[in-house]
TrEMBL record:
Species lineage: Eukaryota, Metazoa, Chordata, Craniata, Vertebrata
Gene3D superfamilies according to UniProt: 3.30.70.330
Entry-linked InterPro entries: Nucleotide-bd_a/b_plait_sf, RRM_PARP14_2
Organism: Calypte anna
Lineage: superkingdom: Eukaryota
Domain PARP14 second RRM as annotated: residue spans: 1-80
Any Pfam family matching the protein: RRM_PARP14_2
Name this polypeptide is given: Poly [ADP-ribose] polymerase 14
């Protein structure tokens, strides 16, 4: 996987500070498109997606040994590849067939859907693809 989850990110942490920390540890550049950061404040986390050729496991190991990261109590771990996603804000009258065709459409993933489990009480669905790259 080329995705690393940063956990224990304080609500007061700024994305720019995390980007600088990642650049300092990895030697890569956000401006050059080597990685992107998505903040998830409700989970006190951030997701780092590397676009270049980097060993995400080695990055996580070095990150977890970094003085600045430790001082802020931020930890890193690799995210596993998955074949399923959770789609939210699904209207109750949307059928499984519609969701299948939607995600198999070129504009929406172009992936082969093997299962759709609707969660009507949560206005959501779990969509499972035949391959992990189908959930991009």
């Amino acid at each position: 996987s080329n995705v690393v989850l940063l956990e224990n990110v304080q609500e007061t942490a700024k994305e720019g500070m995390l980007i600088l920390l990642i650049e300092n540890i990895s030697g890569l550049s956000d401006e050059d498109g080597d990685f992107s950061v998505e903040m998830i404040p409700e989970n006190r986390a951030a997701v780092v997606t590397f676009t270049g050729n980097i060993d995400a496991g080695e990055f996580a190991k070095i990150f977890n040994q970094n003085y600045r990261a430790n001082k802020q109590n931020i930890t890193a771990r690799c995210l596993e590849l998955t074949k399923s996603i959770r789609a939210e804000n699904i209207q109750p009258n949307i059928s499984s067939d519609f969701l299948t065709v939607y995600f198999e459409n070129k504009r929406n993933g172009n992936a082969h859907v093997v299962d759709v489990q609707q969660l009507p009480d949560e206005d959501a669905a779990i969509v499972t693809f035949s391959h992990h790259k189908g959930n991009a």
